[in-house]
Amino acid sequence: MPIKIDDDLPARQILEDEHIFVMTQKRALTQDIRPLKIIILNLMPTKVETETQILRCMSNTPLQIEVELLQTSTYTSKHTSEEHMLAFYKTFDEIKDHRYDGMIITGAPVELMDFEEVEYWDELCQIMDWSVDNVHSTFHICWGAQAGLYHHYGIPKHLLDQKLSGVFKHRMLNPKSRLFRGMDTYFNVPHSRHTTVHAEDILKVPDLRIMAESDEAGVYLVSNESGSQFFVMGHSEYDADTLKKEYFRDLQKGMNPQIPKHYFPDDDPSKEPVLTWRSHGQWIYSNWLNYFVYQTTPYELE
Fold first, then answer.
1. Where along the chain do its domains lie?
2. According to its UniProt record, where is this protein mainly located (predicted)?
3. Contact partners, residue 96, CB within 8 Å, separation at least 6
């Protein structure tokens, strides 16, 4: 929770430099609390599982959050019941005249296709264009991150020699960023993807900066200068058994998948995986909501 102190107290600058949530008396007198409006564009086939994972990551905060779920109208989910979609999801036409504090765009199992070949690509581009003016800060995940970098900045994705699957050690490149408040210099993140983006392509864009990376998994987190766009290549929201389910699913399909790296104890799929990334996932989402949404979004969204 924020610490309310006198505007001129010497400790104020020290605490703010440490990214401690300090609220001056002047701001406290003018603040009027309302719920944050967050919309999630869920492109994953496992809608309910993805909803639960992301909502769990956003729940570890004292902020009041109002969540809406968004689906594409140009593609009908084959893995989630029509009743669930009708009851809980909206289409772009239903929300396009509204504004939101934050938006999350998930990944999707379409990365082996060219972006333009994806059935709902035109609609996704329309939504991403709309987010620039109607969402205060947008958080793109995995394929959603690659799609956002490609659409907004022309950065291509590249096919990997083999699927990147496992839990990998990452390091922050900008430890003073508020996005990393409370986190260790090194942290684990699950990855599950066939494609990647190259650091040299990102570094050519002046407005983008690489925030964290991995020796094995490559670029992990990219943001624009203003903090209105974040692109996250991994899945910090994954449950302990998500990679396990994916591995055995692919095994049953006869796809001969590689065992996810650094995931099963002793690389033995018969042993239960150990959860080593939950705290990182909670911090990333909490810090994004706090520092890049709550503390900077206007009270009157409209």
1. 33-159+194-234+278-292
2. cytoplasm
3. 130, 134
Reported as a single tens digit per residue, the pLDDT across 51-105 is 888 988 887 777 888 889 999 998 887 777 888 888 889 999 999 999 999 999 9
What pLDDT digit, counting tens, does each position of 2-24 carry?
Answer: 444 456 655 556 656 766 555 55
Residues in the chain: 302
> What tokens appear for 211 in the block?
């925030």
Instruction: List C-alpha distances in Å: 47 to 17, 36, 113, 186, 214.
Output: 39, 22, 21, 31, 28
Q: What is the pTM of this model?
A: 0.89
Q: Which CATH class is domain 33-159+194-234+278-292?
A: alpha beta
Question: Residues 37, 66: contact at Cβ < 8 Å?
Answer: yes
Annotated binding site for substrate: 163, 192, 249
Residue showing tokens 């086939």? 45
Q: Annotated active-site positions, please?
A: 142, 235, 237
